[in-house]
Design a protein that fits this description.
The complex is a heterodimer of chains A (185) and B (74).
Chain A lengths: L8 H7 L1 H22 L4 H21 L8 H30 L12 H12 L3 H12 L4 H7 L5 H19 L10
Chain B lengths: L4 H14 L4 H13 L1 H37 L1
Helix pairs in contact in B: 2-3
Classes of the chains: A mainly alpha (185), B mainly alpha (74).
Chain lengths: 185, 74
Amino acid sequence: MNSTQTLPREVALIADRERTMERIYAQTYPMVRHYIREQGGSEEDAKDIFHEAMIVFYEKTALEQLTLTCSVSTYLMGICKNLWRQQVEKQRRKTAWNETQTDLVWEEPEDENELPALKLMGFVEQLGETCQSILVSFYYFGQRLEQIATQHGYRSVRSATVQKFKCLERLRKAVSHLSIGHFKS
Amino acid sequence: MAMRPELEEVQLLEAYLRGTLSEEQQMDVSVRLLWNPDWQQKLAAQKLAYQAIHLAGRQQLRRELDAIYVRLFG
């Protein structure tokens, strides 16, 4: 038994992400895989869909403070079924289109947002490991500054806060020459 | 540790975007933004910065999930 098991799920997910995610993964993935295989999908399909569902789940829980009224497994399974249906539908339409075109083009069309996304992420990486970790931990993973201060060896929450804003300012400078119109998401 | 003005400004714009300022402060910032192209540019860049962080975070989460898959089922 580890101590996080007594914490509310949302708190455990943020404070002890890797272990909590691993536990949810171990519990839920076999069910998802079983379902996707039954529907004619591959292991790779199951994994991809499950990861997308986990990302939705994390973002909803950590960033939007969603409180589930059902079990995590049920919630994730529901997202996976939806994502799978969407994928099948997309594939069906693409196949129909290709048949009318007679030439078979199977590659995904280039996502217009893909390149700017990579470029944008590059700016975060260029900040160096410490800044990247502080910014991502706080703004994406929703970690508390107390935890971030401890992890990065800051003496106080205040110094971690100042450091966070320094990193954010550097990032803001780095992206400031880009036009906002490029990055509609 | 006092923050230099530039950092105070980043903090203020963050609070503005989150809507956590007092009504009066919120209004002040709105008015300033209206008349100050430099501030508009800074706000736009700050939004872009958050977007970049979000993308980087998602990528990290995806990597962590891949690692868990390999550990448990790979």
